[in-house]
Amino acid sequence: MPKVSRLLTLAGCCTILTSAFAQNPQSKPAAPPFAAMPQMSQAQQDNYPPPLLSDLAAIKAAALADDYAYQQVEHLTENIGGRPSGSPQAKAAVEYVVAELRKLGLDVQLEEVKVPHWVRGAETGELVEYAGQAPGSTQKIVLTALGNSTATPAEGLIADVVVVNNFDELRALSRDQVAGKIVLFNEIFDKKKAAAGVAFAAYGEAVRYRGAGPKAAADAGAAAALVRSVGSADYRLPHTGYSAPAGIPAGAVAAEDADLIAHLAAQGKVRMHLTLTPQKLPDATSYNVIADLKGSEHPEQFVVVSGHLDSWDLGTGAIDDAAGVAEAMETAEILQKLRLRPKRTLRVIAWMDEESGGAGHDQYSKDHSAEFPHHVAAIESDAGATHPLGFNVRMTPAAVDLLRPALSVLESIGSTMTQPSAYAPGADIAAMSDAGVPSLGLLVDGRTYFNYHHTAADTLDKIVPADLREDAATMAVVAYALASMKDPLPR
Ligand SMILES: [Zn+2]
Question: Rg of the chain over CA atoms, in angstroms?
């Protein structure tokens, strides 16, 4: 627990040091800041009275001994399974989370959302013509359809493959060079960035091709588009994901197969037989689950804790993002278990449709933007469930300052960092963040996240229970602090 200094009445580091010296002229000159005991500013002391600090310590201890979040992830992934928008599993997940949150005694609302309903079909690829081909043979290509892909004919299509490394190379080609062909975007995911701890920067660079590549290829006359999988795994796994509607079949090939095609294309003509038969069904009705633990003093003010309930269909959506939903649920579970009533309303949200267009958060914005001035803070966890480091934050420096005492409570598990973000630190809280709501995204060790992200390997075994407990502890401590400190965070 941070030490509360009674010495000081003025905030600010330099003031602290000089005034401490002034009160005791016999003492040696003050130590430089890095050698000094951390001390709370007046604003921090006002907002974190000792009873709140001891509640936060109790929340942390409870979370580190609690397997509630893990049990939720288990049920969502193993009993229910992958939860793409519009699927029966997404519907079952909504019903399950509603029932669990009601069991916890929360006031639960279902917010209706119209979601896209895209269903994966057959997906196969093989190279049928290439330099050095042994007579009668083909080369299998491991691939998967991207969300919004249209279908090839049932028997597939056969076309030449054109490999480009980036959008500029596509633009440099004539229409004849692209028309009727399969364009492969071979942007390589920067694994060194991931290994260095900035996996999301690598993702941001590569994912542009998944998002916008198929449309660019379609505009250039291509018959189909493929992207090199956006991910860091070396196990020949294709990674699916959202792609802007392009009106052509669109898929992701495993990184190894992108290499193979690129190598063969450098030697001569490559022809591919591609079959993708997904279906776009009519939009479906689904729901955001919104559950409130009413605040005792300011029930009209909200602190949002959230994750998204939908997932891709290849795996069972454990790290993306059953874990985030489970951490938010556990935040409420712990407060109820400890009989702690926040001053402001704690709002748990299980978002629908983060993966295939964001209809859930769009709907929330539509229905609740008038209340955004009373949304004191919004937290989303959607970056996996490995060991926590702190938060990506989008808020003023003064607001970050007011978070410090809560983060200090988490020092023993290491989740003390605040990493300023120029963008919303979570897709589902972006509208709130853009409207000025102080926003936080759980920051975890992201080095392996994109090995599994959007693949068949996003399964329960990727969740380490001890890490998930620390993640839930981090969310619960900070959420309770935000909901119970004296002042709302400054904007
Ligand atoms: Zn996600």
Answer: 25
Residue 189, pLDDT score: 97
Contact partners, residue 463, CB within 8 Å, separation at least 6: 70, 73, 318, 319, 323, 385
Ion ligand 1: protein residues whose beta carbon lies under 5 Å: 320-321, 382
The dihedrals phi and psi of 304, each to the nearest 5 degrees, come to -90, 130
Nearest to 149 by CA among 25, 12, 242: 242
Classify 163 in phi/psi space as left (phi over 0), alpha (psi -120 to 50) or beta.
beta
Three-state DSSP at 86 gives coil
DSSP state of 248: S
Query: pLDDT (tens digit, 9 = 90+) per residue, 467-485?
Result: 999 999 999 999 999 999 9
Q: What residues have CB less than 8 Å from 426, skipping those under 6 apart?
A: 306, 378, 379, 380, 381, 382, 433, 439, 441
Catalytic residue at 354? Answer: yes
| d(CA 317, ligand 1 centre) in Å | 9
**Ligand 1 centroid vs 171 CA: distance in angstroms?**
31
Cα 298 to middle of ligand 1, angstroms: 31
Q: List, for the chain, all residue ranges whose pLDDT scores fall below the cut of 50.
A: 1-26
| Distance between CA atoms of residues 307 and 426, nearest Å | 9
**pLDDT (tens digit per residue) in 415-460:** 999 999 999 999 999 999 999 999 999 999 999 999 999 999 999 9
**Cα(265)–Cα(271) distance, integer angstroms:** 9
How far, in Å, is the centroid of ligand 1 from the Cα of 354?
Answer: 7
Residues in the chain: 491
pLDDT of residue 36: 74
Q: Tell me how far the alpha carbon of residue 59 lies from the centroid of ligand 1, in angstroms.
A: 26
Quick one: which of 482, 490, 474, 242 has its CA closest to 381? 474
> Separation of 321 CA from ligand 1 center, angstroms?
5
Q: How far is CA 82 from CA 62, 94, 423, 477, 478, in A?
A: 30, 13, 28, 30, 30
Determine how many CB atoms are found less than 10 A away from the CB of residue 7. 11
3-class state of residue 442 by DSSP: strand
In whole angstroms, how far apart are CA 418 and each of 4, 412, 480?
22, 16, 17
Distance from the CA of 198 to the center of ligand 1, in angstroms? 17
Measured in angstroms, how far is the CA atom of residue 260 from the centroid of ligand 1? Answer: 30
pTM of the prediction? 0.92
Q: Which of 354, 355, 380, 470 is catalytic?
A: 354
Instruction: Specify the pLDDT at position 33.
Output: 65
- Cα angle 434, 436, 438; round to 5: 105
Sheet containing 182-185: give its strands across. 139-141, 123-129, 271-276, 157-164, 182-185, 224-228, 250-253, 143-145
